[in-house]
Fold this sequence. Notes:
There is one protein chain. With 631 residues, the chain is an alpha+beta fold. It has two domains: 167 residues, Penicillin-binding protein 2a (Domain 2), CATH 3.90.1310.10; 320 residues, DD-peptidase/beta-lactamase superfamily (Beta-lactamase), CATH 3.40.710. Helices cover 35% and strands 17% of the residues. It has 20 helices and 20 strands. Strands 2, 3, 4, 5, 10 and 17 form a six-stranded mixed β-sheet that branches. Helix 13 crosses helix 15 and helix 13 packs antiparallel against helix 19. 38% of the residues are buried. The C terminus is likely disordered.
Amino acid sequence: MSQPIRIKDHEKDARLVRGRVVFGVIMVACMFGVLIARLYYLQVIQYEYHSTLSENNRVHVQPIPPTRGLIFDRNGVVVADNRPSFSLSMTRERSGDWRQVLDVIVEVLELTPEDRALFEKRMRQGRRPFEPVPILFELTEEQIARIAVNQFRLPGVEVVAQLVRHYPQGAHFAHSVGYMGRINEKELKSLDPVNYSGTHHIGKTGIERFYEPELHGQVGYEEVETNARGRVLRVLKRTDPIPGKDIVLSLDIKLQEAAELALGGRRGAVVALDPNTGEVLAMVSQPSFDPNLFVTGISFKAYAELRDSIDRPLFNRVLRGLYPPGSTIKPAVAIAGLDAGVITAASRVYDPGYYQLPNYDHKYRNWNRSGDGYVDLDTAIMRSNDTYFYDLAHKLGIDRLSSYMSKFGIGQKVSLDMFEESSGLMPTREWKRATRRQAWFPGETLILGIGQGYMQATPLQLAQATALVASKGRWNRPHLAKSIEGEKPVDHNPMPDIVLRDPADWMKVNHGMQQVMHGARGTARKAAIGAQYRIAGKSGTAQVVAIKQGERYDRSKVQERHRDHALFVAFAPAENPKIVVSVMVENGESGSGVAAPVVRQVMDAWLLGPDGLLKPEFASPTSAEAPAREE
């Protein structure tokens, strides 16, 4: 039986359609409402936030490192400047797989696996986010072209033109000016993150380090607009950096070269001072090294050669070399004895060739085993008589001796702007008790009187002690900077002058030192032959290895590097001192025979003009014509 045909209900269908349309309209309206609300939220309520994000993606603030200040010698010769160089920098955050990018760089530039390891080490060092890291310096034109052709393979890599520190005088000022190097992680934590933005190098040693804040300057900034790939489209705003201050040193390159020539390739140190100002005129530590090797990163092999060299070229002998001062300290000991009242200039001691303490059998030998007979102060200094100074040290005692030597700068840092300086050692009872857990023995006081024993000093400290004798106790801290942007350096911790009860004592010791050079029996009279000016000096010999009681020094039985060090200190012209020179020749053996001629050559280079005559400004009414008192 067939089903009845259902009659279509058009009214019902129309209602269904209308319902669906209304529902759809409502849904669409709701969706539009949500969209409009979201747009309102994003574009109105969070407008500042998103506009800032957008602006940060488009606009970047880039630091502009300041130009580092230049360094000159006292005559205007450049000793540290900045020269343009192209370097390869890489921003890790923009490089994706940065290790793979490093592989591409090595492939493109045909570099070695050692270079690849160095690049990765530099990339791993501490840095700030999105800060480009220089990985290769001093690019050649060919390398720059290869990078440009393969730029599409090197995201985050760019060639940057920058100024790199350069030392045109090479090794001449390596130990005084110092050098710059890459900022390490430890330094990064202590540096101002704002002022050192974009700066990758910092002073490591010498003047470069001590005056780092002055030389560095103030960082600048520029706001730049970039595209999606980070390429700069235009500069929106720029704040110029403030360049670092220029520094003029008190050093004289001609005197520096003369001192190096005088050393003749031997290991040693030379320091020359102006006793009236404390200016360091020359500062030589030999052997030296080329500081340019450290600026852009020294190779492992080159550094190992310098570090492991038996001659220690990296070691600053002027500031860090600690040596027994030997007899060079005797003028200061003589001043102590005169001022303390334990001796007078006429006091005499009989020298049979040795000295013995009361009730002791041990003999403290004079260098002249046959003795000098009766010796007064003048003769004791001229002949460097050990017996006289054994007796003087015994009369002073360790407490007074230590106190006076400290006034002369022994056992403390004496410089104004040389942070590497060692303080040396001036022993005391308390020092020995604290370090050796022993009492002080009388014999130890005796050998301190001739600059042996525990006492240690740097060549700079010996120069300063001699300068105090030359200036009659007026303290001027040795300093390398003559002016900083035209202003003289300020000593914020001045040392008190040495004031004697009788100021005439200075000249008594001065005269004895003149006899060393000009007296008939002076230990260094050969070094003063033909001098156009009076020299006051004192020789010294510092033992490297001890010699047993009763034995004599035999150089043929001692290895070259175990032989005595030769020392000599002097100032001139003796009546009106203008220069003080301290010389130490490692294993030179004879202060008078080896170190004294070096002093003479340095003094001639400073005091004599091109014509070989004494410069008028250094002449005095009682200059070279003054007769020497014969002994």
